[in-house]
């Protein structure tokens, strides 16, 4: 694929797909720690917005019509459910992964700098598919957590790290707060062991630790208190307290201890 982010999105989708393979239909009705969404809800959400991203490249008029429909309905959940005609379980898994493959293929052939229509301002093709990777990874976390499985991350999460770093200023602006003049130094250890560094050294503010935990904080799948990240300085502390790399109104991160991997007890039999 000519756009690396398209392959990264596909690989993350395949990893989640592999996790789901052993499950029977009933398992997908389990409620996760994310707003009580079931695994069916998660897959419907991912599928719908993967399809909407595909429309950015293939049918802009239908994309606009869908956006209008969501606005009239007062939310996205009804549209996500009706789009798959209520499909659930194994059938839904097949629908979702087929669309993920189609979306990845479409973006692989796209100009990364092409401007695409979206709900808010237009965005680049690269930004759009990176957002799909981030959403797949972030919503995948509640499924990994619900199933009690430790996720084996790959260095493709660097795309999410970059989103987290690039939305530093926006996170403050979105909350109608003054944007700090200097971003904290961010020093992260990748799954491969490589060290990724962002920002400028010499200041008092710093965030350091595992890259995957930084991703968990900026996607709000973990409270900073539930990670091993070392945060130094007032600006870094404030940022990590409400970091948000996804669009929309300001969201409150989960409280400490709420988002975590479930303990799966061994079968007594």
Q: Could you please describe the fold and organization of this structure?
A:
By secondary structure, the protein is an alpha+beta fold. The chain has 2 domains: 4-149, Four Helix Bundle (Hemerythrin (Met), subunit A); 159-242, no CATH class. Helix content is 50%, strand content 8%. The protein contains 10 helices and 6 strands. Strands 4-3-5-6 form a 4-stranded mixed β-sheet. A hairpin with a 5-residue loop joins strand 3 (185-189) and strand 4. Helix 1 (4-20) packs antiparallel against helix 5, helix 1 packs parallel to helix 6 and helix 7 (158-166) crosses helix 9. The relative contact order is 0.13.
The first-level CATH class of the largest domain is given as Mainly Alpha
- The structural class is alpha+beta
Number of helices: 10
> Strand count, sense and closure of the main sheet?
4 strands, mixed
On the 0-100 scale, what is the average pLDDT? 94
Characterize the overall form: globular
Number of domains: 2
Strand content bin: 5-15%
- Widest beta sheet: strand line-up: 4-3-5-6
Which stretches of 5+ consecutive residues score pLDDT under 50?
none
The CATH topology of the largest domain: Four Helix Bundle (Hemerythrin (Met), subunit A)
